[in-house]
Amino acid sequence: MAAEFTLSLSRREPAVYAARLRVRPDDLQANELTIDGVVKLDAAELAKTWEDRDGRTAAENYGRALADAVFPVGPGPVPGAETIRDAWLRARGEAGNPIRVRLELEEYAVELHRLRWETLRDPQTGSPLLTDQNVWFSRYLHSFDMRRLRPPARTAARVLLAVAAPSDLDGTRIGVRAFGARDQFDAEREVAAIKDALAGWTRDVTVLAGPEKEKRPTLIRIVEHLRTGTGFDVLYLVAHGALHPTGPKLLLVDDDGKGAVTDADRLTDELRRLRFPPRLVVLSSCQSAGDGHPAPAAGPGGELDAALGPALGRIGIPAVVAMLGNVLQTTANIFVRTFFKHLGSGQVDQAAAEARQAVVAARTADSWAPVLYTRLTNGRLWRDTRAGGDRFDQWDGLVQQLKRGRCVPVLGSGFLEPLVGPTQGLAERLPGAQAWFAAIGLADLPQAAQFSAVTQGGEALRTGYLTALADEVREQFGDIAPAAALGEAAPAQAGDDPDDHAQGVRLLLKAAAARLADDHTEAHDVLARLGCPIYLSTNPDDLLAEALARAGRQPAVRVCNWLTPRDNPPGAPPEGEKPTRERPLVYHLFGHLSDPFSVVLSEDDYFRFLIGISKAHFANAFKQINAQLVRSSLLFLGFRLDDWDFRAFLHFFMGQEAAKNRREFDVRDVAVQLDPDDGRNAHPDRVRRYLEQLFRTAQISIYWGSTQDFLAELESRCKPTP
Q: Is this model's pTM higher than 0.70 or not?
């Protein structure tokens, strides 16, 4: 675990900034240290240290002057108290592990964002501070995007590589900047080098480069690829760029392969609209982090930094690598190739540290040019799931249970995310929900549904939920099918019958799922191939039943009768019809779209569910399933710890007769959990330890990783060895 240093700067008055250093030791038991101070920094004066000098000398002088301002010698604002300089030197000396350094700048302090922070020198030794392998540096950006970060999706990340090499580059201009033949990228060489750098951890690389029309990286073609299925984890864009009075520009290509000067804001807008944006964007493009020139100080609410890199961070891209100034191709090539080589673990700031050291070792004049922006609290894009799988030691027993037909998958809302995105997106679309979000900010689906039901009525909530599902699918997949073919899938109007509208939404989901059907790792299809007799789902869709049918099975679909028997007849297989591999049971615990009023949505619905399942009519309906669960291993898939459906299911199951009788058979269950070290938790190790303790009491083993990775590994272990 790395010790963490976060330096925050906010403008107090011209050239004077309030500073706060937060130090979190690498010892989980130690307390966080906070030191306040004042930084006097005149960007225009600092820029003079760069003038009329060669690159390396200028960077050294600039970095020393920057260190003198950030770590001034002498007493701080509080007499006798430890200063930022003292705290840094002491903590730096005590750290036994790598140090994560985050720079957090006031949003509208453009003059600070334009500085060459990557030149910063150690206040004691004068050596480059941020080119040490053990110093993991990034510029932390606050985002206007309030969505949770997209969870890690796969062991081998998907990479989209686009190289824009216009055939008419010689003589092309972006404003006052002209390009010549010597500025041309060698697309073939670049693609080969990047594939080689990525080979250690992924070979899933899609390339947009070369003379073929279908591979030319136009803006439209790049965006079309990013919209495909669940998108890409990494976008690497090689293109000339420049800041311009009208905004940042990129030199992409048109369909004829000629240069197309493109407003970079168009790329930002397209990425903003993606349901699954990349977790990392790497811009090998000049001035994508700014031009390095000092900017006048703006007041509160003034202009934000216009460069493409920080703009992408502000719309919610978790990590962005961009170039400050007119970067040398040699510098960019060395940095990016080293960076990708070390990125397999997902630790983006560590990979950047390795890349910075490689650039310094090559003695390029602009080693400071690559800039890493993140909105991650811990610098981790994804967890190295290969390591997670290695720590999971229940494979043999789980495979044996599966072969005996004694595994029961329990599906959470994560299974629907590839089609409709996170549930928060649905919550924001519910009738009246915007008033709730405006009042309290973030909210989960049950909270927003409760507010909608109380203020708009239960039927308006159901109709709004169906419309939200349809809108989210269309936003992700575009005009996925003609409206006529989907019947009532058009947006519902006041007075529409939710039952009629639901059928159209089911068809829309089916059409969207067909887009993903070619991916043999799609989670529903993998589950269907595993051949379990019983599947429990907390989702209201048909996707699992359709996947089972594609796999040649004949599923019986039943819906939990948590409402009264009159409203929702007992949903259980007929007496004597035992679920088998060939005729499995799909049991929808929280309702189904075939009856929109059976879907558990609001907080009150969850309470009614827990009350309803305690009644005698439910116990009788569930009796046959209970008998199967006594000796079966449960696989919790697609849940988060704070999901209402996860907590409600645990309460439901622990009250069943099967849960009381399972201990004598020593049945082991498995919960697939996305690692808390995903950028949303400041103390992931503590969260991980809590989860392990929580599940241990219920005899549940944890697989740290994604559902897709877990299912792929489980399926591979079930196949006979050739």
A: yes
